[in-house]
Amino acid sequence: MVPWVVLAVLGGLVAVLVALSLWRGLSGWWLRGLAGLAVLAALAGPSFQREDRRPLSDIIVAVVDESASQDLSDRPDQSAAALERIEAEVAALPDTELRVVRLGDGPGDSGTLLMTALSEAVAEEPRARLAGAILISDGRLHDIDREPDLPAPLHLLLTGQEDDWDRRLAVLSAPAFAILDEEVLLRLRVENQGAVPAGEEGLVPLEIAIDGGEPVEFTVPTGEDLELPVTLPHGGRNVIQFRVATGEGELTDRNNEAVVQINGVRDRLRVLLVSGEPHPGERTWRNLLKSDSSVDLVHFTILRPPEKQDGVPVDELSLIAFPTRELFLDKVDEFDLIIFDRYQRRGILPALYLDNIRRYVEDGGAVLIAAGPDFATAASLYRSPLGEILPAAPTSRVIEEPFLPELTELGRRHPVTQGLTGGGAEPEWGRWLRQIELDPTGGQVAMTGMDGGPLLVLDRVGEGRVALLGSDHAWLWSRGFDGGGPQLELLRRLAHWMMKEPELDEEALDATAEGLSMTVTRRTLGDSVGDLEVTAPDGTVTTLPMEEVAPGRFQADVTGPEMGLYRLAEGDQEAVIALGPSAPREFEQTVATGAVLEEAVAARRGGIRNIADGVPDLRQVREGRPAAGRGWLGITPRGAYLTADVTTRPILPAWAWLLLAAMLSLGAWLREGRR
């Protein structure tokens, strides 16, 4: 009826009055005290309370691990049989329910998040009703630090067999980038796990393949770190695939394979620029090549032809003697690209030197000729041994008229000229003022000039590449003449195509991956391509059509069903790509074990049982008692209930308390009056 503070103050006052009565020697002090207590009790309002309770069932949470490692061997059947038995056992228990949670692979490559799934399941249920939790798994989880605080026993039903074993190939370290023609070290390890049978230890065969090519086999030991020196064959992405032989009775071969993707970069690109008669475009080439810090440029310029006689002694024409023999005979193979800019034969470079350059191209080198009027004369490079590899012949006509460079149909598909800024059906770039008339003898015409005549001709000769630009006026674009144009973009692409950058190959199949999705791109000079064949890590083959997204460029978007190595093929083009790691986290450890969960299970008085030995019975045990024994697992009944109604009845009515206090006070007065 009143706050507890008021009751406390009144209680103190009653105590003081009783003490005063006792001090004065009043014989009824105890009756006065009882009267005060009766008043305090009336103010406190004591009552009887009755609750109408409805009992609630106990809840058991069963988490079924259905991650990738649980698909191995007979584990799916073991899990299904265990869950069926648990459902039957729970159904036989009074007032007990079962909540089943199924768990797949974690996002990305996070593995089996078993404790996360258990925590989320427990959080959705009333804590007071949790009687136990049962995990059906191989015990290979990757989030043990997320274990929940359970008020009931935790058990593990372990899949797998005692004689399970597996072999795994692990890449311990690999660089993301490497310099071409330089060795890089990869560290590998082949390890066996589980009950390895006799004969599977020791030496095993290891296959290594680059970019899906023919594999090379080696014999390596198991259980040791291996250092493998590798030299990348080309620039751009190099996919190196490793595969170790599959042993008899092995759980899976998914982790017998590993893929390393290394981007090959050139340390320094060596370019030899040979300039003839000086002209405004010479500075353009030099600026382009010098602006790239990865290019080592050697510039050879002929300023004084041999026929010019001005009386200057030969030993005073230069500070040092130019090493022509060393450059064009001894060290020509060290260059990645040789550019002839308006060069004509003047006796400086003998036919032997030029013939050596022809051989250099056929063996894999690259030559670019930017032709000026000299190309149409008798001193043309075409009339040297280089003429055997050039894709067009001069007609001896030099056109000195403005013209607009245009892309051919093939040029709109070729990576060198495809999508050049301003190069649409009606080019939006400036005109050039001079063109050397050419007669194509081979190669591919990517650009045309006056009256549709060849302007840029590209060709492959042997292992090398040749490009012929039939004008020396590309520099007009960089000066902004008539609106300018993409001169820098064109020349840079041209130089990189000749240096065999993979991104500029005419015929190529490439793929980029993000998560479990990849975009496959097919570059071609043809009008159409066939269907894309995708071979998944498990060997299944899927055929998909490819859609044209740009001239000469076809694409297909693919979503892989699982992580691993995918092989792509279209026509004679092949590629390999890894979605996620080639051996996902799920397959790092595949042999079933309860060691990871042992501490967590023991802390909650639970048990770990192998399904292969039979699924144990479920029993009810009291809280605090061991919850696992031979052939059985225990759950703790919680006795939870729901209060449906509460009835409150006072111990005495108010008038009775008043009467009791009055009688006690009167009794004290009468007792003290007799004295």
UniProtKB/TrEMBL annotation:
Keyword Transmembrane helix tagged: yes
Gene3D superfamilies xrefs: 3.40.50.880
Annotated signal peptide: none
Keyword Transmembrane helix in record: yes
InterPro entries: Class_I_gatase-like
Spans traversing the lipid bilayer: 6-23, 30-48, 652-670
UniProt keywords, alphabetically: Membrane, Transmembrane, Transmembrane helix
PANTHER family given in the database record: BLL2462 PROTEIN
Name under which the protein is recorded: Glutamine amidotransferase
Native species: Palleronia salina
